[in-house]
Specification:
This protein has 205 residues and is α+β, with helices and mostly antiparallel strands. Strands 1, 2, 3, 4, 5, 6, 7, 8, 9, 10 and 11 form an 11-stranded antiparallel sheet that branches. Strand 10 and strand 11 form a beta hairpin. The longest helix has 22 residues. It is globular and about 40 Å long.
């Protein structure tokens, strides 16, 4: 029985969420090389899965329905150094580490640390998320700027229009709009205002 309890405890630890787990979201809202602002092409989210395991998810808006395709993703990594390496799931992607040496085409102002390329035969296809594995990594390790201090990441998108053109985009921290009030909150506000009105009428009698 003690052995069974120990096994259950070990499984619980294995699947328990990381304390202080981070979720980072970046907006694809600038074109390279000049960082011209544009309507967002989508977002990239980096989140903790488990100790030493981080998931990178891409959500493309594709407003014109041209079938935007991910062709590569460049990231920054705060712990980049000699011996830094990652494994990926799917394994066919791989991760190329070149600290401060990864550059987006035409963007000479800054460099990145890590590049996840398109696996053969090309394009990420329908894959929109990749998991990175390395000892002790967390999502917070990727919350750093490139060498220019401008971008957190960069993505190469293909087939952005009917002519099949491609584009490099820069990612900056996503800033959500103000949250819409929930119906319950609106109802409570209404009751509060009604109560204030009633009290005011009583005080004037």
């Amino acid at each position: 029985m003690k052995a069974l309890k120990g096994l259950v405890a070990a499984v619980g630890l294995a699947i328990a969420p990381i304390a202080g787990a981070a979720v980072l979201t970046y907006d694809l809202d600038a074109t390279l090389p000049d960082l011209d602002p544009i309507s967002s092409f989508g977002t990239v989210t980096i989140s903790d899965v488990a100790v030493g395991e981080v998931q990178i998810s891409v959500n493309l808006f594709d407003p014109d329905g041209s079938g935007d395709r991910i062709q590569g993703l460049a990231l920054n990594f705060s712990g980049c150094g000699a011996g830094t390496s990652f494994t990926t799931d799917p394994a066919s992607f791989g991760a190329i580490v070149d600290c401060d040496g990864v550059q987006a085409d035409g963007y000479s102002d800054g460099s990145f640390d890590l590049f996840i390329p398109d696996p053969p035969p090309g394009n990420w296809g329908d894959t929109t998320s990749v998991t990175l594995f390395a000892t002790g990594i967390t999502a917070a390790d990727f919350d750093v700027f490139d060498t220019s201090g401008e971008l957190n990441l960069s993505i190469h998108l293909g087939q952005i229009d009917s002519a099949g053109n491609s584009i490099w985009l820069g990612g900056t921290p996503f800033v959500p709009g103000p949250p819409l009030p929930e119906p319950a909150s609106i109802a409570l506000l209404g009751l509060g205002l009604a109560g204030l009105g009633w009290m005011r009428r009583r005080s004037t009698r």
